[in-house]
Design a protein that fits this description.
The chain is of the alpha+beta class. About 20% of the residues lie in helices and about 10% in strands. Strands 1-2-3 form a 3-stranded antiparallel β-sheet. The termini are far apart.
Length: about 120
């Protein structure tokens, strides 16, 4: 019954019907999200677990927004040494980013102020 009334549990009934009749599976990412496309070049994603747009990797994001037409490959690894593995947004969790606070007394000026 959840599928009839809630959009936050994977997909709605409308998305299920659209995917079944017109959708063609074009790929999956490392999170298990499935990406679909139809003949009108509409593109959508069905999330594997919870719906969170930050779980779409950058290559699939570009494909979803018609920036690139090449379908990203699942075995495509890091292109450069400086690239990090994709992480979803951790805001509101214990793993959130917290920058180190610098006390005002510890800041060393690289210049002298005018007098």
């Amino acid at each position: 019954m959840k599928i009839f009334f809630t959009w936050w549990n994977k997909q709605t009934l409308g998305t299920l019907i659209k995917t079944f009749f017109t959708g063609k599976l074009v790929g999956k990412d490392e999170f298990g999200n499935k990406y679909y496309q139809n003949k009108k070049n509409e593109r959508w994603v069905i999330y594997s677990k919870e719906i969170d747009a930050t779980k779409i990797t950058s290559s699939w994001y570009l494909w979803m927004h018609h920036t690139i037409d090449k379908i990203p490959e699942h075995n495509e690894k890091k292109k450069y040494k400086w690239q990090k593995k994709h992480l979803e947004n951790k805001t509101g969790t214990n793993e959130k980013y917290r920058p180190v606070k610098i006390k005002k007394n510890n800041v060393q000026k690289k210049y002298e102020t005018w007098k």
